[in-house]
Design goal:
Layout lengths: L4 H10 L1 H4 L3 H12 L6 E6 L5 H6 L11 H8 L1 E4 L8 H11 L4 E6 L2 E2 L8 E5 L2 E4 H11 L2 E5 H6 L12 E2 L1 H5 L4 E3 L6 H12 L13 H4 L3 H4 L32 H4 L40 E2 L4 E2 L28 H8 L1
Parallel strand pairs: 1-2, 1-3, 3-7, 7-9
Antiparallel strand pairs: 4-8, 5-6, 10-11
Helix pairs in contact: 1-3
The protein binds iron/sulfur cluster (SF4) (2 copies).
The site of one iron/sulfur cluster has 13 residues, from α12.
């Protein structure tokens, strides 16, 4: 495949601030620009996942660097294998993977790794008649990789596929392979997080990681700290009024990522900006440890439609659980009130 390394490195340098690249990395990228060493190949595997991180990466558009993800992965980075994006298929694709695995390569894995039934619930490819499971592929390829990237929360910590009851025993890439990974979580992961981390690795720089093995420059601060609603009064009903959404379940206080300033979909918006809550999609234990996502804290019996005010009856300030419609003192919902509708949504 053709490699336009200079364009990619120029893009990373030009977009250093936006990508959150430290100055030291920019210097190394500039040095790399002057050198002529070949880039390591990238082998990208899709295990148990929805391919959402690949779709998210496909949203990468730029005027100044790689035009889109195809430009980035095919023309810029030497992508040896990606089951969704590559043109080759079947034996030809597997041959490329095997050839790349003989040299220096970065292994990027999207999705959790099923261990039950000896991994046979997730087959990745066939090699000379032998069906290779995600468990087998990851276990062998991770050993010799220059670096292993866990792309998305499934690969990083198990994520949604690894959620209760997890009948196929899906675990993270590091748990399945026994090899330490750089985790780039998110459900999905942000394209900038992926590109920024790969850029650092190409510059020969292993990013500083936090206690959850995430790049600290991207996941160092809580969502809540940079949320524009941090100083606002709390709202008690999704979609009614503007304010902090903690009372209705926002997990911004427990979640580390830079979504409020980075924004999503080519800087269009982010979860809280769109009126939803942060559901902690970048955190270990997502989704089980953060469910239910939405919470009811108050009785809505006395909800004042015109003023968006609540008259909280009988000291009812919250059961802490979703779907209960409030704790002690909550009145029985009157016919036609919002409570049945909200409870329905929460089921
Ligand atoms: S909406 Fe969420 S992230 Fe924003 S201030 Fe409230 S709790 Fe924090
Ligand atoms: S705001 Fe929260 S839920 Fe939304 S993408 Fe960021 S970390 Fe995930």
């Amino acid at each position: 495949m053709q490699i336009h390394r200079r364009e990619f490195l120029k893009y990373c340098i030009g977009s250093a601030a936006a990508l959150g690249l430290p100055l030291s990395v920019v210097g190394k990228l500039q040095n790399a620009l002057a050198a002529d060493a070949p880039l390591p190949k990238v082998i990208w595997l899709n295990a148990a996942n929805c391919t959402g991180c690949t779709v998210s990466l496909a949203n990468l558009f730029s005027d100044s660097g790689p035009a889109d993800v195809a430009d980035l992965l095919i023309n810029t980075i030497d992508l040896a294998f990606h089951p969704t994006l590559m043109g080759a298929a079947g034996d030809l694709a597997v041959a490329q993977l095997l050839e790349a695995s003989q040299g220096s390569y970065i292994l990027a894995i999207e999705g959790g790794i099923p261990r039950a039934f000896n991994g046979h619930t997730c087959m990745l490819y066939t090699n000379q008649g032998h069906e290779v499971t995600a468990l087998e592929a990851v276990s062998s390829l991770a050993q010799n990789a220059a670096c292993v990237l866990a792309i998305g929360t499934c690969a990083s910590y198990g994520g949604i596929p690894g959620g209760d009851p997890n009948p196929t025993d899906i675990v993270s890439v590091s748990a399945a392979s026994g090899v330490s990974t750089i985790n780039i979580p998110g459900c999905p992961s942000h394209p900038d997080w992926i590109v920024s981390t790969i850029a650092q690795l190409l510059a020969g720089n292993v990013p500083q990681l936090d206690s959850s093995s995430r790049p600290a420059n991207l996941f160092g601060r809580k969502i809540h700290e940079r949320c524009p609603r941090e100083d606002d009064d709390e709202v008690h009903t999704i979609g009614l009024g503007y304010g902090c959404l903690e009372e209705v379940g926002c997990k911004g206080e427990k979640t580390r990522a830079d979504c409020p300033t980075r924004l999503w979909n080519s800087k269009t918006n982010w979860c809280v900006g769109a009126g939803s809550i942060c559901i902690a999609c970048t955190e270990r234990g997502f989704p089980d440890n953060f469910s239910p996502f939405y919470e009811l804290r108050y009785s809505y019996t006395n909800y004042q439609k015109d003023s968006h005010e609540l008259v909280v009856g009988g000291g009812d300030n919250g059961s802490g659980g979703g779907g209960g419609g409030g704790g002690g003192g909550a009145e029985t919902p009157r016919k036609g009130s919002m409570v049945p509708i909200i409870n329905l949504l929460l089921k």
